[in-house]
C-alpha cells in the first residue's frame, strides 16, 4: 500500500501564542529567536576559537547505520573540522559523526547570554526541584545528513522546544496514543510501520521541515523521529510543564528510588531467612529496636500515603472521566 500522507504541522507567529495551555499538540512557532545574539554569533569560527579545546560527546554512526551509534569523547575543534567538510549526500556507505546532546551549560555557561528562553517555555517545574536532583536539560546539536535520531519520546514526559538556528531538520511526530502502539524498531518513515501500526490509528502522522528561525514545540509523551537533510545547528531544551508534572514526578522518582528498591528487597529477603531460623536475631529481638525501625518506616512512607489518599479522594469525588481510555499499549 502507498505510505500514509503526513499532515503538515501548524505554524504560528510568536506574538499569537501567549500560553502553552492553548496548545494541545506540537506546533512550529516563528519569531521567537528574533532578538537572539546567537543567530549572528554562533558560527563555526566562534565555536572553534572560543571552545575548540573542549571535549564533547560525539555520536559515531558506523557505515550502513542510520540510527545506531556509539558515543565517544572528542575535541570540539576536531569535530567541527570534520563537520564542515562532510559531503552533503547523506551516504550511509561511510562512518559518520553527529555532535548531539552537547550539554554546553556545564562547559560554557556564558553561551546562555547569547539567547533567551522564550517566555512561553520558561515555566519549568525542574527549576523548583531541590538542587541535588536538578539536571541539565539544554543542548546544542550540530547535525548533518545521514545521521538520524530514531523514534522516541523524551524522558520523564518532559516537553521540548527545538530552535533551528542554521540549516534545516525534518521531523515526523505521532500522538502519545499512537506512540504507545509502536515497537522499538519502528520508524515513522518505514512502510512497514505505516501498514502495521499507523494505518490502524485514527490520529494523523505529522511532518515538519524546520528551517533557521523556526522553533518547534513538542508536548510531553509525543513520539518523534528526526532526520537531518543538510548541515544544521540547533539549540534545544526539555522542560516540565504543569500539565505533565505528576507523570514527570512518578517517572523521575522511580529512577531515583531504583537503587533503594533493590536495597529494600535485599533486606526483606534477609529478614525472611532470619524469621525462618526460629526468629533468633539480636537486633530484631529488641522491642525498642523494632519500634525505632517502625517509626522510621512510617516516616519514609508517610508522603506516599498522603499522595495515595489524594488519589483515592479524587477517585471518590470524580464526576466523570475527562479522557477516554486509550486501550493501546
Ligand atoms: O535532532 C535530533 O537529532 C534529536 C532531537 C530530539 O528529539 C531530542 O533531543 O530529544
Ligand atoms: Fe526528542
Describe what is shown at a glance:
The protein is of the alpha+beta class. The chain has nine helices and 14 strands.
Can you tell me the CATH class of the largest domain? Mainly Beta
Described by strand count, sense and barrel closure, the largest sheet is: 9 strands, mixed
Shape: globular
Do you know the CATH topology of the largest domain? Jelly Rolls
| Annotation field: number of helices | 9
Helix content: 25-40%
What's the β-strand tally?
A: 14
CATH superfamily of the largest domain: Cupin
Major beta sheet, strand line-up: 2-3-12-9-14-7-6-4-5
Can you give keywords for this protein?
329 residues, alpha+beta, Jelly Rolls, 2 domains, 5-stranded mixed β-sheet, 14 strands, 24% strand, binds 2-oxoglutaric acid, binds fe (ii) ion
Task: Give a written overview of the molecule.
This protein folds into two domains: 7-240, Jelly Rolls; 247-316, no CATH class. With 329 residues, it is of the alpha+beta class. The relative contact order is 0.15. The model is unreliable at 325-329 (pLDDT under 50). It has helices at residues 38-41, 44-51, 76-85, 104-107, 176-181, 191-196, 245-276, 282-285, 287-317; strands at residues 7-8, 10-13, 27-30, 55-61, 70-75, 96-102, 138-143, 149-152, 159-166, 168-174, 206-211, 214-218, 223-227, 232-239. Strand 4 (55-61) and strand 5 (70-75) form a beta hairpin. 32% of the residues lie in helices and 24% in strands. A nine-stranded mixed β-sheet has the order 2-3-12-9-14-7-6-4-5. It has a five-stranded mixed β-sheet with strand order 1-11-10-13-8. 2-oxoglutaric acid (AKG) is lined by residues 100, 141, 149, 154, 169, 224, 226, 234, 236.
Amino acid at each position: 500500500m502507498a505510505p500514509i500522507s503526513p499532515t503538515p504541522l501548524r505554524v504560528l507567529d510568536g506574538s499569537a501564542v501567549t500560553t502553552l495551555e492553548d496548545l494541545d499538540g506540537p506546533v512550529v512557532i516563528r519569531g521567537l529567536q528574533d532578538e537572539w545574539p546567537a543567530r549572528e554569533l554562533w558560527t563555526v569560527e566562534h565555536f572553534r576559537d572560543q571552545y575548540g579545546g573542549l571535549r564533547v560527546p560525539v555520536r559515531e554512526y558506523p557505515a550502513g547505520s542510520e540510527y545506531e551509534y556509539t558515543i565517544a569523547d572528542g575535541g570540539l575543534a576536531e569535530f567541527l573540522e570534520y563537520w564542515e567538510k562532510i559531503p552533503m549526500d547523506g551516504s550511509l556507505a561511510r562512518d559518520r559523526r553527529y555532535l548531539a546532546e552537547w550539554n554546553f551549560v556545564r562547559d560554557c555557561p556564558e553561551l546562555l547570554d547569547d539567547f533567551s528562553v522564550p517566555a512561553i517555555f520558561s515555566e519549568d517545574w525542574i527549576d523548583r526541584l531541590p538542587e541535588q536532583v536538578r539536571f541539565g536539560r539544554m543542548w546544542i546539536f550540530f547535525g548533518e545528513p545521514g545521521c538520524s535520531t530514531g523514534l522516541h519520546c523524551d524522558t520523564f514526559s518532559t516537553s521540548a522546544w527545538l530552535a533551528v538556528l542554521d540549516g534545516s531538520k525534518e521531523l515526523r511526530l505521532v500522538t502519545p496514543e499512537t506512540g504507545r502502539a509502536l515497537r522499538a524498531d519502528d520508524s515513522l518513515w518505514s512502510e512497514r510501520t505505516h501498514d502495521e501500526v499507523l494505518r490502524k490509528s485514527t490520529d494523523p502522522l505529522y511532518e515538519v521541515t524546520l528551517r533557521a528561525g523556526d522553533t518547534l514545540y513538542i508536548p510531553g509523551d509525543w513520539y518523534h523521529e528526526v532526520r537531518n537533510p543538510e548541515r544544521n545547528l540547533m539549540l534545544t531544551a526539555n522542560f516540565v510543564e504543569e500539565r505533565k508534572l505528576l507523570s514527570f514526578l512518578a517517572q523521575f522518582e522511580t529512577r531515583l528510588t531504583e537503587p533503594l528498591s533493590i536495597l529494600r528487597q535485599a533486606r526483606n529477603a534477609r529478614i525472611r531467612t532470619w524469621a525462618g531460623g526460629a526468629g533468633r536475631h539480636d537486633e530484631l529481638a529488641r522491642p525498642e529496636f523494632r519500634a525505632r525501625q517502625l517509626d522510621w518506616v512510617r516516616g519514609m512512607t508517610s508522603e506516599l500515603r498522603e499522595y495515595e489518599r489524594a488519589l483515592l479522594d479524587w477517585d471518590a469525588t470524580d464526576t466523570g472521566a475527562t479522557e477516554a481510555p486509550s486501550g493501546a499499549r
